[in-house]
Amino acid sequence: MKLAVAALALCMLFCQALTAQEYDVRRFGARADGVTDNTRAIQQALDSCSIKGGRVIIPPGNYVTATLLLKSNTTLYLSAGAVLLGNTDIKQYPYLNAGISFYGEDWARQSLIFSRDAVNVTIEGEGTIDGRGASFPVTTDKKPDRYKNRPYLLWFAGCRNVRVSNIHLRNSAFWMQHYLGCENVTISGLEIWNHSNKNNDMMDIDGCRYVNISDIRGDSDDDGITIKSTSPLISQDITITNCVLSSHCNALKFGTESTGGFRNITVSNCVIKPSKQTTTIYGKPAGNGGLALEVVDGGIMENISISNLVIDGPQVPIFVKLGNRGRKHNASAATPPISSARNIRLSHIIAVNADTIGCSITGLPSKAIEDISLDDITIHSKGGGSKADAERRVDELENAYPEGTMFGKLPSYGLFVRHVNGIRINNLSLKYDADDKRPGLQLDDVNGFTISNTDIQQTSPVTPAIVIERSAKGLLNVMSLGDIKQYIRKDAVSKDIFINGSGKSQLK
């Protein structure tokens, strides 16, 4: 009997300890009426929780709040049916300091939820955070003023062991989520809708390392899952998998800011599809771009592996750009050197319903992209290019803002490759709907290439499938039903180009 009583007492103490680790915001005076500002009540719950650690519970109902500070060893849990509604008065959002100098620090200074230098912080549950972003109008197009007074939804800066999972995120006034200089970040199971204001990125990973992103279903007006480097910190050691994404701009994007750069990143098993939102603030309903890899502000882009993607609808499914915009991350920083890009692998990608522009992989005359491979790639576009399109010269646009549409209609309907040292293309299928007078694949200033097993649609034998200009040291293992010279056209400058058949013969 005594043993049973003792066991019951221990059990009660254990249950009380568990209860003590949960902080229901209603106990601190929060009201779920959709009107009362609950910032102080919820913050008191968060502060109390951070002392010993635990969970702050948002029960079902609509809770209005302005800026909340998330401290170490704290979990913010939103129950099913719980909605955090952003206060629509910008004066209730104080200016915040990330503690890290980054491009944008002078205007991106407010957030609904903010965490700086915290450890072990989590936001989870089945509820919703709605920033009511349309309530924060853009009052001017003048830079940088047009970015001011629009808070992020979530902002983590210099934090470790961050987890955001399973919740619904809606209607930010600016970027939906900004993870700046964080380490050990897990983002999973989110449902995201961001179509309420300008610059409505879905997610921005910025100078972070050890990041795992998975099972995201997101739809945004501006860029989708975006890897950035707005400071000298490199975004590195990142995995992205099992996501379904829609964006009016670029669904999966590295850039544009690349001060530190991007290293050791894998993307796999993702679907990119047209947005459910047909009206746009930026971009196109089906998207400007599917996969955009851009390094233009100094920094590196290396050791990148992207596989198993379906890209349905964006104008330009694949865009890889090494440029030289050279923008400083702050006024006192040195001008960045030219960027570098190397060791990039793209494989098992199906792209359909692309526009007439074409995909591109381009470096600079003074700095080539190095060591890139494309394996098992299908691109099906609208076609309709003219002979004049095939003959146009493409401007370098070295210091321009990078975008898949930046060159206009390319001289090849499928893929245009320029200023690359070392590219391997295997199992490439290029098709179109309307007759296209352009080649499917064009290489310009490419040194060291291998092309194998191509299936490239041609309007007629007069239009070659592959065009090679100003290039050298190439091996083509391709088949044509007709004359190989009608399948491949090489200019007089290109040299050491071989066809691999029963032996090796040089392409004249």
Jot down its keywords.
single chain; 508 residues; mainly beta; Pectate Lyase C-like; 36-stranded mixed beta sheet; 4 helices; 8% helix
Question: What does this protein look like?
Answer:
The protein is mainly beta and 508 residues long. The protein has one domain: Pectate Lyase C-like, CATH 2.160.20. Helix content is 8%, strand content 49%. The protein has helices at residues 2-20, 39-52, 387-391, 484-487; strands spanning 22-24, 33-37, 54-58, 61-65, 68-69, 74-78, 82-86, 111-116, 119-125, 128-130, 152-157, 160-165, 168-170, 177-180, 183-188, 191-194, 203-206, 209-214, 217-220, 225-229, 235-247, 250-258, 261-272, 289-295, 300-312, 316-322, 340-354, 359-362, 369-383, 415-434, 441-456, 466-469, 472-477, 488-490, 495-500, 504-506. It has a 36-stranded mixed β-sheet that branches. β35 (495-500) and β36 form a beta hairpin. The termini are far apart. Residues 5-10 and 12-20 have low confidence and may be disordered.
Radius of gyration: 26 Å
Number of strands: 36
Strand residue percentage: over 45%
What class would the helix/strand composition place it in?
mainly beta
Separation, N- and C-terminal Cα atoms:
99 Å
CATH architecture: 3 Solenoid
* Global morphology: elongated
Count of helical stretches: 4
CATH class: Mainly Beta
Give the rounded overall mean pLDDT.
Answer: 94
Concise account of the structure shown:
This protein has 508 residues and is mainly β.
Layout of SSEs?
Elements: H1 2-20, E1 22-24, E2 33-37, H2 39-52, E3 54-58, E4 61-65, E5 68-69, E6 74-78, E7 82-86, E8 111-116, E9 119-125, E10 128-130, E11 152-157, E12 160-165, E13 168-170, E14 177-180, E15 183-188, E16 191-194, E17 203-206, E18 209-214, E19 217-220, E20 225-229, E21 235-247, E22 250-258, E23 261-272, E24 289-295, E25 300-312, E26 316-322, E27 340-354, E28 359-362, E29 369-383, H3 387-391, E30 415-434, E31 441-456, E32 466-469, E33 472-477, H4 484-487, E34 488-490, E35 495-500, E36 504-506
Parallel strand pairs: 1-3, 2-4, 3-6, 4-7, 5-8, 6-9, 7-10, 8-11, 9-12, 10-13, 11-14, 12-15, 13-16, 14-17, 15-18, 16-19, 17-20, 18-21, 19-21, 20-22, 21-23, 22-24, 23-25, 24-26, 25-27, 26-28, 27-29, 28-30, 29-30, 30-31, 31-32, 31-33, 32-34, 33-35
Antiparallel strand pairs: 35-36
